[in-house]
Specification:
CATH class of the largest domain: Alpha Beta
Radius of gyration: 20 Å
CATH superfamily of the largest domain: Aldolase class I
Protein name: 8-oxo-dGTP diphosphatase
CATH architecture of the largest domain: Alpha-Beta Barrel
Family: Belongs to the Nudix hydrolase family.
Strand content: 25-35%
Helix content: 25-40%
Largest sheet: 8 strands, parallel, barrel
Order of helices and strands: EEEEHEEEHEHEHEHEHEHEHEHE
CATH topology of the largest domain: TIM Barrel
GO molecular function: 8-oxo-7,8-dihydrodeoxyguanosine triphosphate pyrophosphatase activity; 8-oxo-7,8-dihydroguanosine triphosphate pyrophosphatase activity; 8-oxo-dGDP phosphatase activity; 8-oxo-GDP phosphatase activity; metal ion binding
Structural class: alpha/beta
EC number: 3.6.1.55
Keywords: DNA damage, DNA repair, DNA replication, Hydrolase, Magnesium, Metal-binding, Mutator protein
Distance between the termini: 37 Å
Number of helices: 9
Number of domains: 2
């Protein structure tokens, strides 16, 4: 869902407060509030005349006693509770002064993505937990005519922490591609990394890959989500992002953000257009095109979940 926020919905600024070790903060709702005892991300309603960022800063000071120093826009969720229709505007908060402490009778708990150990949780937050489990860097293979030599670069990247990989080898013969994909998958699984196949749903299912990266043509042709744990979409415009959301994709790539060596002079989005396309989206979006790992903070400042890298992932 993109564009203007419906006027009959209550806007809520929501903080995903993350520490360097990847853990994030949840708080229980205090007695006297709807869904008392349920766990949620800290935050609160946006007051009339207040920006969402200002509401976030105010709410975290009032609820947790901290001063926010670094917060970037992330996801938007639309949810209808029996007592309210809400637009949840999530920010990734990675910098603050002070130690979070409960100021309004709530209980706090630091949680690990993929291993939530508190319950019950407000239902609007379950897709957010899945998004939080996605790494910040998405590596796209570039083996070319040397699949064996690429494995050294892959092993180095996995040792350095890469945990999400797309196999994209359009010029590789089918038999070679399957052998290559099985080898990548085995090495990735040894590091608890996830692997998606570019466009080839059947091959992803056959080798037990974690998912598939749909191309723009598939987005237009598919009537339902492929039967795989992870489904991502390669997008370049509003229509393709809309379709990715409608199909229930887990995340999207949006490109090209900046000029690339392989396509000099080609039109690019630029950060301004990238941010406009990300605004209001319900699924995490990776920025792709002309980027390196040093662009991660810039990407997040403009609404990205992370960066997708070709050359940069294997250096």
């Amino acid at each position: 869902m993109n564009g203007a926020i419906p006027i009959d919905r209550t806007q809520v600024a929501v903080a995903v407060i993350t520490r360097a070790d990847g853990t994030f903060l949840l708080a229980s709702r205090p007695p006297g509030k709807p869904y008392a005892g349920y766990w949620e991300f800290p935050g609160g309603k946006v007051e009339p005349g207040e920006t969402v960022h200002a509401a976030l800063v105010r709410e975290l000071h009032e609820e947790l006693g901290i001063e926010v120093t670094h917060a970037t826009p992330w996801l938007t969720r639309y949810f209808d509770y029996p007592h309210a229709h809400v637009t949840l505007l999530f920010f990734l908060v990675s910098g603050w002064h002070g130690e979070p402490h409960a100021k309004e009778g709530q209980t706090l708990a630091w949680q690990t993505p993929g291993a939530i150990n508190v319950a019950p949780v407000l239902p609007a937050n379950h897709p957010v937990f899945a998004a939080l489990a996605l790494p910040a860097v998405y590596g796209i293979t570039q083996a070319g005519s040397d699949p064996t030599g690429f494995m050294t670069r892959l092993d180095n990247a996995l040792e350095s922490g890469l945990r999400l990989i797309q196999i994209r080898e359009k010029s590789m013969p089918a038999a070679t591609l399957e052998t290559f994909a099985r080898d990548v998958l085995a090495r990735a699984q040894a590091h608890q990394a996830q692997v998606l196949l570019n466009a080839d749903v059947a091959l992803a299912q056959r080798i037990g890959a974690h998912g598939v990266q749909l191309n723009a043509t598939q987005l237009g042709e598919l009537s339902r989500r492929p039967d795989l744990p992870l489904v991502a979409a390669s997008c370049h415009n509003v229509a393709e992002l809309d379709r990715a959301e409608a199909l229930g994709c887990d995340f999207a790539l949006l490109s090209p953000v900046l000029p690339t060596p392989s396509h000099p002079g080609a039109p690019v989005l630029g950060w301004g257009n990238f941010a406009a396309l990300c605004a209001g989206r319900t699924l995490p979006i990776y920025a792709l095109g002309g980027l390196s790992s040093t662009d991660l903070d810039s990407a997040r400042q403009h609404g990205a979940h992370g960066v997708a890298l070709l050359r940069g992932a294997w250096q």
